[in-house]
Amino acid sequence: MVANSAWVDVEDKCRGRVEMRDLDEEYKPGSKFDLHFSTNDAANVSFVAVDSAMYILNNKYRLAPRKVFEAMNSYDLGCFYGGGAKSSDVFMDAGLSFLSDVDVSGFRQDYTCTKRVERQRREIRLQDQFSGILSEYSGLRLRKCCQAGISKNLMSLSCEQRAEHVRESDCRQVFRRCCEHTLEDRRTKPRNKGLGRSQVDPDVVDIGEQPFDEVSVHVRSAFPQSWLWETFSAGQAGNHRITSDIPDSITTWEIQAVGMFENQGFCVEEPKKMKVFRPFFLSMNLPYSVKRNEQMIVKVTLYNYSPQTVSVLVYMKKAEGLCSSLESRDNAETLTVSANGAQSIDLTLVPLVVGSIPIHVFAFSHSGSQTDAILKHLRVLYEGNVEQKEWSIALSSKEKRSIEILERPPTNVVPDARNYLYIKPTGTILGNAVENSLSAAGIDKLIRVPTGCAEQTAMHMAPTVFAVEYLDQTEQWLSLTAERKDEALSHIETGYSRILGFKKDDGSYGVWLTHPSSTWLTAFIVKIFSIVKVYLSVNERIVSESVSYLIRAQKSDGHFEDPHPVLMKVMQGGVGGAEGEVSLTAFVAVALQHFLNAFPQSINPSPAKLVGHAAQIGSKEGGLYAGIYFEIQIQIQF
């Protein structure tokens, strides 16, 4: 058999399209605007506008069509194209599995490539650097030229030789630059990069939280980081329009559109930028919170982008529970702001009450041509510090005991503060340790993807099954993310499918198909499959075959032996050791009990023989085991 593979690059393009019309060059804050767009199919189109300044802080989560296709490509199982050491390697390197009576290729266990055939495009460091140089070119044509230069040359040609085949001069320069940049990155070793400040978008006006004024005495008070959270239902292809109010921020908004089409799938469109600006505005930054009676200074800055110098009066509106140096128009201060300049003034404030105090600042020119007003709220907290006291009181179940807690109010309590006594009893010896481990966050750590051999897969699948069962009964799923339960059930289904791959013809299981079967492992899988029946469709015939194997392995007096025990002893817990027959027989009995509860119409595993042997061994050991297995006997009577 002869095999080969070739790399085919498919253009990243959506079938469904949402095309937004170009926006005006500049908008006024607080005004209305119409967003015109068109679709090529019936669709639900969702819009959101994000302040570009947010991407200066973190550009990682900017949504773009390229990110969607990169996420889709991350599930590509192919690692290398071309020939291989043998035919089966060609299929595996291309991300395929091949089965025949001639040869069998290996199975890929995850979405990573081995070092032997690791494709350069999979290397995260290089991929990040490639995307960095690609982002320097905004045009689609030059971006493709750079992409061609980045691609690895299989003919070992130099960048100069490759660039000779490019016709356009500007494309040739971009091609050569990207080729040489990529070649240098491939030669160098990874370097630890320190944190640096992101490059500022020139379209974004950096003025703190960006409060500013409108043409009239419009009070600017809405400064969201994002807005326009709307979904438009387009019943048919064609042109559409939505109308909305622009917030009061002076910034550049990026409007994003995501379309869910009736016949064309979904698509994320490139964002459109909308610039909001005024030539005269003021900015005021407030701290997150202050304490009552704390004196503070708030800086108010006026920006004048007009070509004339402006003389401005600035004052603050009087607010209840707040002392200020500029509380009325009579105490207004005059500032002269030069053309294309800025001027600042300090406001001294002393909050006297706890709560949210409005800070309302006005600015207007003597001629009345330039005005501005801004409203923000100051969060005021109680002075002092919160003090907590804890006591540990041991209670015994053997005696009744009443406890009286007397706590006198402290002498230095803050006046008018909300003082309270909070009592939290914990009814276990381990206290918070057990409570935290049984919380939703603690149980969430047990949910894992089952991988490995049969023993490892069962060992990873079982905690996930028990975690789902516990979270269902305690109704704690709401404390986790919305998709976490779906992920857990998906992991269980993955584990179920993997374990079936290790099942032998007689219904037993071993660590591998070629390894001898283990009685304990088979009983463990029977127990897990019986429990998980309520969450997914379990083939009853498959579990019954495993039960039949266990019954055939039972000795004449009812006990069980495991001539080929599991390799990972840690997964057995207390089963085995000096009393291996007793513990193994009890473990199998519990597994069969779960099987009969899940499949009541199935075969009977002769519980009487199990109980008889357990009682016989228990009587020899002085009653300890007899008591334990008497409890088992009660549980498995039908």
Supply the number of helical segments. 16
Low-confidence stretches: 116-126, 189-216, 605-638
Mean pLDDT: 76
Estimated helix fraction:
25-40%
Structural Rg: 36 Å
Distance between the termini: 59 Å
Shape: flat
Number of strands: 18
Might you state the CATH topology name of the domain at 435-635? Glycosyltransferase
The top-level CATH class of the domain at 435-635 is: Mainly Alpha
CATH architecture heading of the domain at 435-635: Alpha/alpha barrel
Beta-strand percent range: 15-25%
Going by helix content, strand content and strand pairing, the class is alpha+beta
Main beta sheet: 6 strands, mixed
Could you characterize what this model shows?
- By secondary structure, the protein is an alpha+beta fold.
- The chain has a domain at about 435-635: Glycosyltransferase.
- The protein has 16 helices and 18 strands.
- Strands 4, 11, 13, 15, 17 and 18 form a 6-stranded mixed sheet that branches. Strands 3, 5, 7, 8 and 9 form a 5-stranded antiparallel sheet that branches. It has a 4-stranded antiparallel sheet with strand order 10-12-16-14, with no helix packed on it.
- Helix 5 runs parallel beside helix 7 (about 170-185), helix 10 packs antiparallel against helix 11 (about 485-500) and helix 14 runs parallel beside helix 16.
- The protein is flat.
